[in-house]
Amino acid sequence: MDLGITGRWAVVCAASKGLGKGCAAALAREGVNLVINARGKDALEATAAELRALNPAIEVKTVVGDVTQEDVREALLAAAPQVDILVNNAGGPPPGDFRDWRQEDWYKALDANMLTPIALIQRTADAMAERGYGRVINITSGAVKAPIDILGLSNGARSGLTGFIAGLARQPGLAGRNVTFNNLLPGPFETERLEKTLAVASKASGLTQDEVAQQRRKGIPAGRFGTSEEFGAFCAFLCSVHAGYMTGQNLLLDGGAYPGTF
């Protein structure tokens, strides 16, 4: 299927590894020019080289830094001639016990997983509407739909972004101008984030990390963890010309682990 986005420009946050990298790679295959961001320079430049090799016809620009900082966001947006596609992504806050979290911990979680995506949307949404095309994908978490007790910081901050997007996506001046906003809710995917979560669960349970991972797999009907490649492919479709009638949705990718009907 031709996704119809060759030549578009995308900004992808936290793109040096994991799900962000998977999204960037899928967009690169579709001929989308990229501005990618991450805090680690070496990993980001290595990913940029991979993306250029993947599709020599596209431009790939890098902006190193913490995207929660305004100057980094300014540099990120300035690097693209225009932003047709915005993929908001940030590493989740650390797992733990709510009794140990201080106000500063909550501020950091909200800044990274709610306020920063909103700031980038503020800077790009109206220009997308003026051009008649825009796709905003927010990578949140399956924990928004099925909260995980040790991920309370993430549950709270990402749920706040989810509520904001629900209202924004339905504004006629955006939806009616072919600008869509959707959230991708990953369940367990093979990423560093999952490894950290398994390590915390291992420490709490007394089981080995492999034993904890095996228990998690047993709770997934697909019998495995997801891959960044399949996540990226789904993201690319939502960015395509074929997804213009889907907006304001929370799309769960978890191998069937969530047991509900809705």
UniProtKB/TrEMBL annotation:
Annotated EC: 1.1.1.100
**Family annotation (SUPFAM superfamilies):** NAD(P)-binding Rossmann-fold domains
Keywords, in A-Z order = Oxidoreductase
GO molecular function annotations of the record: 3-oxoacyl-[acyl-carrier-protein] reductase (NADPH) activity
Looking up InterPro entries in the UniProt record yields: NAD(P)-bd_dom_sf (IPR036291), SDR (IPR050259), SDR_fam (IPR002347)
CDD domains linked to this entry: BKR_like_SDR_like
Oxidoreductase listed as a keyword: yes
Q: What class of enzyme is it?
A: oxidoreductase
Q: Pfam families of this UniProt entry?
A: adh_short_C2
Q: Highest taxon of the source?
A: Bacteria
Q: To which protein family does this belong?
A: Belongs to the short-chain dehydrogenases/reductases (SDR) family.
Name of the protein in question: 3-oxoacyl-[acyl-carrier protein] reductase
Originating species: Orrella dioscoreae
